[in-house]
Amino acid sequence: MNDLDLDKLFNPKNIAMIGASATLGKWGSIILFNILNGGFDGTVYPVNPNERSIMELPCYPTVGDIPEPVDLAMITTPAQTVPSLIDECGAKGIPFVIVVTSNFSETGSKGAKLECEIVEKARSYGMRIVGPNTMGIFCAKSELHALMPPIIPLHGPVSMFSQSGNLGTQMLAWGESEGVGFEKFVCSGNEGDLTCEDYLRYFAKDEATRVILAYLEGVDNDSELLPVAREVSKKKPIIVFKGGRTDAGSKAAASHSGAMAGSTHIYKAVFRQTGMIEVSSSQGLMDCAKAFSYLPIPQGNRVAILTRGGGWGVITTDACEENGLVVPPLPDDLIKKLNKILPEYWSHGNPVDMVAVISREPYLKCLEILADWEDIDAIITFGGRENITLKSPKKSKLPDEFKAALSAFNPQKENAQGQDKSIKLIMELIERTGKPIIELALFSSDLDRNSFENYHPVCFPIPERAVQVLRLMVEYRRFLNSSA
Amino acid sequence: MNDLDLDKLFNPKNIAMIGASATLGKWGSIILFNILNGGFDGTVYPVNPNERSIMELPCYPTVGDIPEPVDLAMITTPAQTVPSLIDECGAKGIPFVIVVTSNFSETGSKGAKLECEIVEKARSYGMRIVGPNTMGIFCAKSELHALMPPIIPLHGPVSMFSQSGNLGTQMLAWGESEGVGFEKFVCSGNEGDLTCEDYLRYFAKDEATRVILAYLEGVDNDSELLPVAREVSKKKPIIVFKGGRTDAGSKAAASHSGAMAGSTHIYKAVFRQTGMIEVSSSQGLMDCAKAFSYLPIPQGNRVAILTRGGGWGVITTDACEENGLVVPPLPDDLIKKLNKILPEYWSHGNPVDMVAVISREPYLKCLEILADWEDIDAIITFGGRENITLKSPKKSKLPDEFKAALSAFNPQKENAQGQDKSIKLIMELIERTGKPIIELALFSSDLDRNSFENYHPVCFPIPERAVQVLRLMVEYRRFLNSSA
């Protein structure tokens, strides 16, 4: 199994869509629509004995009627029809089949039996199955959007395998608004045949994948996922979110993916030993995807905090300390440097609270001084993006003269230019010092789309999320050091 | 001190702006601008010996020159000028003065001495001081936006006192995008004179205030805040976020508000005893503000979960169990009822996973059945708002016929109408059953502004936040029961 090659699965030359439908709203039509709308590089052959053409493509009665060899088939027809369709795909020599259909092992013993049957059949043909009960796959390279939801993810360095289709595809969609790009995605479904372990091995070898995300509910006792993960973790971060951590959650998981969720304590220990980065929420999964994709791993746990609001400095310091990060005191020479830039009432310590200084130049100078401070490993900074929009309420008593002056003033534009300058400096400082710099943007409206896609700044709306991410990066650094 | 009346502070007939400036960008001009732009009900008198008029208002050399009695003065001039200005305000008989100026006790012993001086002076005149080192106050009733940042908050039932101006005003601004409305706000600054305890007593009596938020760094040993809080908590929820929970955070707090942050363990215990609802992040503060404002307090800890994605059901169940909430099994009669609505492969348990059913009618029926289930106290529901926008990527291979069909189709509008229906049903079910129903909206773009302001649905983007809020509501219910 070591050399299992999933290239044809993620980059097929062509796809047979078995159960493609001309009826809008049926899953066969929705997935076909998503593939065509996603701009897939290859050819799609709808297969349906009752149609001549679907979405202007010629439709074939069976896969056997398709005039050339087929790399990948997708099946969306009811469970009881799947075994004979697997036979047809086998006879055609199709190497990969994605079984979207549900009502297999996740619904009980009858479904489990049917699942065994299709897997045995597939093996007899040397065919590999994704699913059953999967929401599909995505690949940026081949522009393959073989998914149930109509998602067109951003392209980027993250690949994900997920034992939940909804949670996984939501990450793809969420990545778009968070500026996190994906390379490959697979919803592993019931894992009747191909398992998380197979996808992990493949992503490990895949050059376009730099960061691996996993949503796991459980793995079989004989799975090699964890030993494999330990090797992969030395080269690429694997960020894992475990569902079924509690008894009740574990029961829910059994009826969802058929997984045996296993003991939480064992998983936690194993994740730690294998260097897998365990997050405790869906939010954490996305936050880590962003940070591990676009920031260097810090060398240690010492953090400088730059803020224009004392309270934010206090709670960020609390969060750091509670998460094993250190906020070291400022040395005298840095205090002297900062004295030249800031008014006398600045905090004279770390967190560096600029107090009411709101112009951009001193902010950027402080940031540069902190980045060059040798005794810190990372920076959390507030203030590069605050952008409270001036609104005129109904009862404004402002004289007309001022209203006119205001309408000529374009804070949005000014701010966008200023932000661009901040982001460029931050990117330059990260590059030069090798230290991660995380920004706080307290409003999502502060995030400028362009700078996001051009520079990938790592920004969060609340400091607690920045701190959680840094804690996990520091733990990963410890794993890398201990296994070097 | 029991009968301290702060009505004139929050609802002054007029304000003297001492240090008002004609120079845009100076704090004196910024606050004046914010007051005028906010549509304050009363009169504003700029006070500045060097100007004749500011923003078209007549300017007075001193407060003594103002031709009528003054309810409230604000001071923005440098620290050393404040004592004599307090004398002038005292001579004029002004009952309340907001000292915005910083460089008092928060910067060391010299500043502390100056702070004592102004407080002693104020007391000799029977005058009360907000601050010093405050970012100001807000009141919805009087449309008073006497704040440093240009924020026009939504109006609503929440009043807040904050020992951080930045954190507090950010909550006001954040409330706008989160649909949380405020009644009164005060940044208590260094609390040289008026303290959190005074503001708490006042908010407790204030009829327009239903929910109280607090950001606290520390209180003096002789403060009566906590005993007062215990009484207030029986009538109104007090949600508190404590800064300075760690040694390092506590040091940062000392240089910020001059507060002695005190032992975390003691605070935690005291918050519990007084029924105060302690949150552990800035996000939690806003989430609780929303939930306690717009949802009934559940009677117990039993939760029904409705989802269209198994993975979300699993992680929500995990989060519930980890937070002391129970996800009880579905009784047979409910399973029978749901069997009539859902396809055979639904989860047949709680969480109720509708699997791939995406139409709205069965969703609404399930929601109603769950709300009427006698053995649960709250509902968390996914699926009323999913709204993944159809995008056409550059390389779409969709036939023109389909593109035309798509452009005629308006999922945004369809969805808005459907959402409106969902929200109305949810509001009706909350009203009828007295149970809180929290929705999950995985994308902020799903939130329809109108329904938000008309109905105040309580929605979060991730389930973990919904669960945290429910946990705190259940704890508050226990406090209410134990102190009844």
CATH class of the largest domain in chain A: Alpha Beta
Percent helix range of chain A: 40-55%
- Straight-line N-to-C gap of chain A: 27 Å
Oligomeric state: homodimer
Q: Largest chain interface and its two residue counts?
A: A-B, 97 and 97 residues
Rg of chain A, rounded, reads: 26 Å
- Envelope shape of chain A: elongated
The largest β sheet of chain A comes out as: 7 strands, mixed
Identify the CATH homologous superfamily of the largest domain in chain A: Succinyl-CoA synthetase domains
CATH domain topology of the largest domain in chain A: Rossmann fold
Q: What are the salient characteristics of this protein?
A:
homodimer; 484 residues; alpha/beta; Rossmann fold; 3 domains; 7-stranded mixed beta sheet; 5-stranded parallel beta sheet; 17 helices
Structure explained in plain terms:
Two copies of one chain form a homodimer. Chain A has 484 residues and is α/β, with parallel strands linked by helices. Chain A has three domains: 1-133, Rossmann fold (3-Layer(aba) Sandwich), CATH 3.40.50.720; 153-294, Succinyl-CoA synthetase domains (Rossmann fold, 3-Layer(aba) Sandwich); 296-482, Rossmann fold, CATH 3.40.50.261. Helices cover 41% and strands 16% of the residues of chain A. Chain A is built from 17 helices and 19 strands. Chain A has helices at 7-10, 27-37, 82-92, 109-124, 165-178, 196-205, 225-233, 247-256, 264-273, 282-294, 310-322, 332-339, 360-371, 400-408, 411-433, 449-455, 463-482, and strands at 14-18, 43-47, 53-54, 57-58, 72-75, 96-99, 128-130, 136-139, 144-147, 155-162, 182-187, 211-216, 238-242, 277-279, 303-307, 352-353, 378-382, 437-440, 459-460. The two termini of chain A are 27 Å apart.
